[in-house]
Structure formats: C-alpha cells, structure tokens
Amino acid sequence: MNTTTPAGNRDQSLPAPLATVERCDRCGAAALVVVTLPTGGGLHFCGHHTRRHAARLLEMGAGLRSAL
Ligand SMILES: [Zn+2]
C-alpha cells in the first residue's frame, strides 16, 4: 500500500503566459501585430488577419508593428 506519487511536481508549473500575450481582435488568436490607428485607437491582429487587413490599414495611415 505504498504508492509513490510525485505530488510535489505540480507546484509553480504554470508561468501564466496569457499575461503577456495580446489577442487578435478579430478571432482571438495570439496577436502578432499591433496596429495604431490614425484616430488614436489601437488594434491587435494575428498573422492571418494582419495579411487580410494590412493593405487597407496602411491606406488609412495606420502604423503596424510587431507585438512580440
Ligand atoms: Zn485573427
């Protein structure tokens, strides 16, 4: 009746990565790009939605930079 369970291995195993990861405003995936709008607002996009909207955003004068 002696089960060796590694009970002490579960502590401090999760560094909470979500605290530093922004989410895409369109689909909720991890954001790769931060968009700064000329109106002063900001958006976050994943790679997929950055490609989808980049041309129009640049036309509007928005700024794109890496969120990483
Ligand atoms: Zn997305």
**Number of helix segments?**
1
> How far apart are the first and last residues' alpha carbons, in Å?
51 Å
Please give the share of residues in helix: 10-25%
Structural class: alpha+beta
Strand order of the largest sheet: 2-1-3
Strand content: 15-25%
Q: Write the element-wise H/E pattern from the N-terminal end onward.
A: EEHE
- Main beta-sheet annotation: 3 strands, antiparallel
Question: Which ligands, by name, code or SMILES, are bound?
Answer: zinc ion
Radius of gyration, CA atoms, in whole angstroms: 20 Å
Structure description:
The structure is a single chain. It contains 1 helix and 3 strands. With 68 residues, the protein is an alpha+beta fold. It has a domain at 22-66. The structure holds zinc ion. The site of zinc ion has 8 residues, from α1.
Write the layout of secondary structure elements.
Blueprint: E1 33-36, E2 42-45, H1 47-60, E3 63-66
Antiparallel strand pairs: 1-2, 1-3
The structure holds zinc ion.
Zinc ion (ZN) is lined by residues 24, 26-27, 29, 45-46, 48-49.
Keywords:
68 residues, alpha+beta, three-stranded antiparallel β-sheet, elongated, binds zinc ion, DUF7455 domain-containing protein, DUF7455
Give a short overview:
This protein has 68 residues and is α+β, with helices and mostly antiparallel strands.
